[in-house]
């Protein structure tokens, strides 16, 4: 059994033995889940950029948020709250099944149900999840019951429409000649979309140790963008440009957008792929719904010449999405790619 990885300051040191026992008892078959110091109240990211799609100037605001943080919140998106709540309810219903029943569901290889183990490279967290390939083939979802499948497909369709609007506004704000460039890249035939439902269950609270369990370790998303919606449970954190971590206040009515590695390359590093993580909130379960928008496997990715200034050189060699994806998923979550 490995000793938990501690990032607590000396003045707020965790009681390692007590916390270890708590984590190990939860699942003795796994190594201890990493423990992090709990965020201070002042570390709350209260100035999350908000882009209201229904207001003039949305394209410029969106680009400004990508320049400054690689992360922003979408309001005025037009997706009914009932649609979000329906999928949330279906997800909670599934995740509250007995563990033996959930284990009978298609195991994550890579798509299906997974528990604590995130990918094949040794990353673990206080999370269980369902991972779906986005496909036009309805048989890909037949291992879920009809009501779950209906809620899932309705939600994904709405988020795809939202992604198109966001990506075309982004191209407009960057003054690309082709407004549909980004949207065609990840919404065209053969594009590689992934949809993830994460559940961070309740567990014995660690507040008295001033520590939190890692729900999902720090990482960047390799795709172009990812669109996230969660319930009103805290836990999401992003890393600012100075390396500090800040907590994102929950907002179940809005969507959050992450700039991914592919978009960083296309803009030649102007937009930075945002590092983020989730700390498990022991007192309240968290449900996250994330749609990752990737290009077609054979699509070539390289900095766009029309976004490069005179004399500016490419910082990245050209690669296909398949090449980068294969390399990215061979790394640990926190590795720099």
Structural class of the secondary structure composition?
A: alpha+beta
Sheet-strand content, in percent, reads 15-25%
Mean pLDDT across all residues, rounded?
Answer: 88
According to DSSP, the number of beta strands is 15
Rounded radius of gyration (Å) = 20 Å
Placed side by side, the strands forming the largest sheet appear as 2-3-11-8-13-6-5-4
| Low-pLDDT runs | 1-30
Q: Separation of termini?
A: 29 Å
What's the overall geometry?
globular
Task: Write up what this structure looks like.
The protein is an alpha+beta fold and 337 residues long. It is built from eight helices and 15 strands. It has an eight-stranded mixed beta sheet with strand order 2-3-11-8-13-6-5-4. Strands 1-7-12-9-10 form a five-stranded antiparallel beta sheet, with no helix packed on it. It has a two-stranded antiparallel sheet with strand order 14-15. Helix 2 crosses helix 5, helix 3 packs across helix 5 (146-173) and helix 5 packs antiparallel against helix 6. The longest helix has 28 residues, at 146-173. Mean pLDDT is 88; it is low at 1-30. InterPro entries: DIOX_N (IPR026992), IPNS-like_FE2OG_OXY (IPR044861), IPNS-like_sf (IPR027443), Iron_ascorbate_oxido_reductase (IPR050231), Oxoglu/Fe-dep_dioxygenase_dom (IPR005123). GO terms for molecular function: gibberellin 2-beta-dioxygenase activity; metal ion binding. Residues 190-295 form the Fe2OG dioxygenase domain. Its EC number is 1.14.11.13. This is gibberellin 2beta-dioxygenase.
């Amino acid at each position: 059994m490995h000793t938990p990885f501690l990032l607590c300051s000396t003045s707020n040191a965790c009681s390692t033995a007590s916390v270890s026992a708590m984590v190990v008892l939860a699942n003795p078959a796994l190594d201890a889940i990493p423990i992090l110091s709990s965020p201070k109240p002042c570390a709350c990211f209260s100035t999350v950029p908000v882009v209201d799609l229904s207001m003039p100037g949305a394209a410029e605001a969106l680009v400004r948020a990508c320049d400054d943080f690689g992360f922003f919140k979408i309001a005025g998106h037009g997706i009914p709250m009932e649609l979000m709540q329906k999928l949330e309810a279906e997800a909670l219903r599934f995740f509250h099944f007995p563990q033996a029943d959930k284990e009978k569901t298609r195991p994550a290889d890579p798509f299906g149900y997974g528990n604590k183990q995130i990918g094949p490279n040794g990353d673990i967290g206080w999370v269980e999840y369902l991972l779906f390939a986005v496909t036009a083939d309805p048989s890909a979802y037949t291992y879920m019951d009809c009501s779950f499948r209906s809620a899932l497909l309705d939600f994904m369709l709405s988020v795809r429409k939202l992604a198109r609007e966001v990506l075309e506004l982004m191209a407009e704000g960057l003054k690309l000649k082709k407004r549909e460039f980004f949207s065609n890249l990840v919404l065209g035939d053969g594009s590689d979309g992934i949809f993830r439902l994460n559940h961070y269950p309740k567990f014995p609270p660690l507040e008295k140790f001033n520590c939190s369990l890692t729900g999902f370790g720090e990482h960047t998303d390799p795709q172009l963008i990812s669109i996230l919606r969660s319930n009103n449970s805290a836990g999401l954190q992003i890393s600012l440009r100075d390396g500090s971590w800040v907590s994102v206040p929950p907002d179940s009515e809005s969507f959050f957008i992450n700039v991914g590695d592919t978009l960083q390359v296309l803009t030649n590093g102007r937009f930075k792929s945002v590092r983020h993580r989730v700390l498990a909130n022991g007192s309240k379960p968290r449900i996250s719904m994330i749609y990752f928008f990737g290009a077609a496997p054979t699509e070539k990715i390289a900095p766009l010449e029309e976004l490069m200034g005179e004399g500016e050189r490419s910082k990245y060699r050209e690669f296909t999405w398949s090449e980068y994806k294969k390399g990215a998923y061979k790394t640990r979550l926190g590795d720099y790619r």
